[in-house]
User: Fold these one by one.
Assistant:
Number 1:
Amino acid sequence: MRGRGSGPTSALVSVIERFSKIDVVNTAIFFAFIVVLIYLMGVLWYEASRAALNIAIGLFITASVLRMYFHPGKISDKIKEWGRCFRRALEAFAEVTAPLVLLLAMLGVMVNLFVVSGWMIKLMGLLATIGEFHVVALIGVGFVIGVFLGLGIPPSACYILSAVIVIPPMTRIGINPWVAHFFLFFIAVISEYSPPTSLVAAVASRISGASFMKTMMVTLQISLPFFFLTFAIFNWDILLLEPGLAQMAALGVLIIGCSTAAAAIHGRLFERKRYDLPSKFVVLIVALFILFYPRGTLSALALIPAVAMIILVLRRSQKIFVSS
């Protein structure tokens, strides 16, 4: 029998007890200034750079005063402690931001390569013309254009450039402009974490200390259901075109479909792969049926087994994880 001080509970308590009063105060101050930032930009309509500068100065002064107040000792000791903390902050800031600055510099070079030269617009215009022969081909070409642009430029520029190239041919063959714009918007969001210049993975890897490439690949793996959603809006266009109960119903269907796809991709049904992979493939087929089969009675009835599969995969995955 385990003693009273052993086990996961005592380990958790020991971890919680390591947090000091100053840690709690710093956390409270941080979230308080987030609220102030929202107030400055959302209520007082401060410019983003001005609001960020005010918040940074206020946070620095507040944290410095509280750090000196809670540190025991004389005034000289408090000042020395503040100096050590300030030095460590500068070192940590430089260590985290240096790779990001290099990444942003590379992004700037690639943006100029894509935009200033002009050859990218001509090439993409040619591809869009080729894709006009069939709606599926045009959607595929639009996806390729958006992903390719997202390899080197940020989401806003990716969306604007791809919209200029792809939207006119899409509207000419009958695709609603709202659907086309949201399709390219989703692709632009994907460009935020797509290789090789994944700014999200760069920030996350620097904060966590993990490998940049591994973080980027795990991010792509986690976001695979989002790729399905990008194409599903062509089938479930009522999500954008019919506000009201129909829109809420379409949102519920898409949530269930994407959740079923996520369960198939990331979940486990059996410990052995020869049984697990075919079963996960069946779950994925149900998800794709919900997302891409023409709206009707069958797609509605498929929601019942989909919900049951999600619950089953969650329970089986938890059981397999605990047993392993």
Number 2:
Amino acid sequence: MSRVLDALARRASETPDTPILTGRGVNLTCADLAAAVDQARDELAALLEGLPAGAPVAVTLDNGPAWVVVDLALIALGRPSIPLPPFFSPEQRRHALTDAGACLVVSGPAATVAPAFVVAGFPLSAERLDARPTPLHPGTAKITYTSGSTGAPKGVCLSQAQMEDVACSLIEVIGAEFAGKHLPVLPLGVLLENVAGLYTTLIAGGCYHALGLEDLGFSAGLRPDLRRLVDAIEAEGATSLILVPELLRALTLALALGGRRLPALRLVAVGGAKVSPDLIAMARAVGLPAYEGYGLSECASVVALNTPAADRPGSVGRVLPHLKVALSADGEVVVGPQPFLGYVGGPPQSGAVWTGDLAEMDADGWLRIHGRKSNLLITAYGRNIAPEWVESELLAQPEIAHAAVFGEGAPELCAVLAPIRADLPAEAIETAVARANAKLPAYAQVARWTVRPPFDLARGELTGNGRPRRDVLRETHQAFIELQT
């Protein structure tokens, strides 16, 4: 049995009446959740009769108690799951289902299909698929597809033990006393929220408050209604959140402009891209207890994290205790001993993972990520520059919503910028770039820039966690990028 299910069984026995999973109109105690998982397990088992043994089940539900119950029920069944995030395109979803050989898709109610079963009061649909079975790595419990920097998502196979090692390490370094009420702001289909949010909260003894993304103001994709988001965090009394840097910036700006505070929050973990120390400082100045971390899907989400007890802004914290990190001769992060099982359709993963991320680690064990090895720019003067470093300083400026930096083989760096508002004067952007440049050495400063509307996820200009897709942006702005001054 998994450690998540062990913790649920223990809590159902010791504190049966304590709330553990809540949502809109739903308040499940520990005993209620244990019973709901058992019932969903039996109903899913019936739906899976006659389907290929071991074939995975895809989950396309919105955030909510039903997502949690289905996920735990699949663990109890020993059936691999494929959580699909809402920002995947139809093509990416089809690729994931076919690539992994999914046999069933669990989704919300469909107008043309009778509900297959009801979970936590939510009627759910279940569609059988005829995809050709795909051999999976032994022990696969979850296949997470990450859109990364290319269009076709790649399936990362993880065991339940690998995911729960992360959750238990997070509890060890943060402390179970921080397990209060966790509010998922990221989609549960994103591994970071699934493992570091859900599993950690359930094992540590907290309450997971799962609202639908629209309830949080996310009807416009990655750009939420910030007032509605702040209202929800305040009204629900959330004590912890997990954010990507773009959401941290937006929430910080909303609190600064509105003069509001969220005093119940005790921990805001931030990951997915490099974060400027200035942004961490700005967030803390408005009462957001922000702590930067680092991870990747191939390591079951989190590798390192700053915490209230061990914090060094500018770094991504110390490595979690169940992992070992080494740096190659050129500074690439290598994570061991074996953080994932392998990719779907690929050979088994043997040993440590070469991440493609460049970093340094000091004598005290603090890890500082510079950027992707594949993104490294070598200027005409022979300087090696990680564009993420420069972008993090640009994005620390409240006037700038999106930034992508280029300069391979050029005498100077240039940037494609999207302002926070379309009516922002050119002088305001110039001042913001000057402030960012003041934080950078002369060879890494931005010499010229072009201003455009916000980067668009639907047009493939952003990854699911908000990072710029450089190949798409480079093609769109090729004339500007290649202009020599």
Number 3:
Amino acid sequence: MIDQSYSQIFASFEEVSNSFNRNNQYFDILYDSLSALYINIDPSTEDISVISKTSGVVARTFDGTWKEIALTDFSNLSTIEEKLPKVVNKGEEIAEFKGWTLNKELKTKIDPQEVPIEEKLKKIRHIFNFVQNYDKRIAMCQLKYLETQITRIFVNNEGSQLRQVIPRLRFFIFPIVKEGIKVDFDHFIIEGEAGFELFDELSDSKLEQIATNSLEMLKAKKPPAGKFPVIVDPGMAGTIAHESFGHGLEADQVLRGRSYLKEKLNKKVASEICVICDTPNLENQIGSYYFDDEGIKAGKNILVENGILKNFIYDRRSASVLNGAPQGNGRRESYAHVIHPRMSNTYFEPADYDLEEMIAEIKEGIMCNHSYFGMEDPIGGALQVTSKKGYLIENGEKTQILRAITLSGLVLEVLQNIDAISKEPTELHGGTCGKGNADNVPVSDGGSYVRCKEVLISPG
């Protein structure tokens, strides 16, 4: 769509932006571009999908409600002033922030866009053949490679001029195993705001471990049902923080009265040892960025501090209404989607326990590993999350490996039942999050190991 340099785009956007008086109304304009490569391999298929570049522009202003116009033809910028209303006395309805500037391209060690597709395929085929042929019980290996690069250029009538270029890479390995009538699998994902250097971590010994993890599932037993002490790994902790808890903190849900956390601000919602944050400026995480799609600098949002709910997750409008401080959570999937308050990197902060100590203190309990599913219920506050596997804990030791385990109940009861969090460094895992079934944005979630005194579990 656009063959201009980013400096020319800045100049064109600034000219349009200056025609909207900030004292009367807020205005911003965003250029969005995506390049992507998807490779899927299994024993019967090898699919390659290339998106060389899709791009567009979206401009908006606030006159009591948001008015937006999206364009795919850069030569039509003049229509923005014709289509968007000019108003007076609406400027204070969107809180004003000091304009700032940024021009940042995240550089990787090996730029994926400079690696030929054939070289990528050679590496991925080697991994496929190694895992597929590692053991005759591996019935099918599935690999998924996802490579994206987004460019966002943002200008508003507060004086902000911002540009960010962010590469993201994710690689999935699913060795599906079969013995007799029993079929199961474990999975492995490597990811980050990184380049093709991520593949340096996938040595043959690492691939052996990935294959072995799936093969071990053939020994897994059905988990018990009932209430037990439970330790969840960082992936499961992140699913609780994001799906079960975080969606109820999105401030648009609060404003619509569709959040069970609406009346909980500055009240106890979790154990005193819990600190839960959403931080979009962490390094090398799928959910990270320098500024959101409203030009707000990425910061750290402490959602829960010592068990007390401190903040919601805001975009500009909800922050203006609720007198909140936005930390960079106004996000849109693309120029063709609207902005919502969205999570970025949501996680439990570490505490002071040793994991071995957490296990040793349990006479009979469960450890859950590898988050596999999580349900959001921002209205009712119910919790339902499922791990891919787990372990029995008997007399302070991990014993029998278990198949999928589902944790159920009310999320606030689970959070207030937390009695230990490990001191391991925060570990996050990435993915995408939708608003309902649309508007997908990259996110990460995680934490350290978290122990609950009692949680209802059942086979997953």
